[in-house]
Amino acid sequence: MSTERMPNPVTLVPGAMEALMGVTRAVAGSGVDGKVLALSHLRASQINGCGPCVAGGVQHATGLGATADQVHAVAAWRETPWFSDEERAALALTEAVTRLADRPDAVPDQVWDVAAKHFDQQELAALLLNIAITNAFNRLNAPTRQQAGSY
């Protein structure tokens, strides 16, 4: 296990944590199912290798009704029966947005169109903000080696 390189950057810049949490609160109040947002957060955090966000994401998703099967299999959601079509659309969008550089068309029309069938524009906006804020936290935690359970 590695040790933290420095305190979490959001604790060192006045107002930073409050600003990020403000976006998180806005997303939570957007009307998108909290379980969908939590599964999206968990999947992005897995992709980015963010230990604190994966650990916290498991607890959060479970608290919002995600089953043990869903939490354990979210990394392989395509190959399991435990996700609704809406959750699958959100997870596909999460993966594409988190891995922007992996393909020439960062978010292919097929991924976007499926998500747009399940979410209206306001809900898509909230889902995109959820993915963005998760990636922001992941990109602050991973390089500074924040430890799961230390928050």
Commentary on this structure:
Helix 6 crosses helix 8 (121-141). This protein is mainly alpha-helical and 151 residues long. The protein has eight helices and no strands.
> Which runs of at least 5 residues are low in confidence (pLDDT < 50)?
none
How many extended strands?
0
Distance between the termini: 17 Å
Helicity, in percent? 55-70%
Mean pLDDT: 95
Helix count equals 8
Order of helices and strands: HHHHHHHH
Largest sheet: none
Shape designation: globular
Please give the radius of gyration in angstroms. 15 Å
Strand content: under 5%
- Look at the helices and sheets and give the structural class: mainly alpha
Compose a concise summary of this entry:
The protein is mostly helical. The protein has helices at 9-12, 16-28, 34-48, 51-63, 68-73, 85-98, 109-118, 121-141.
Task: Give the topology, please.
Layout: H1 9-12, H2 16-28, H3 34-48, H4 51-63, H5 68-73, H6 85-98, H7 109-118, H8 121-141
What structural keywords apply?
0% strand, mainly alpha, 151 residues, globular
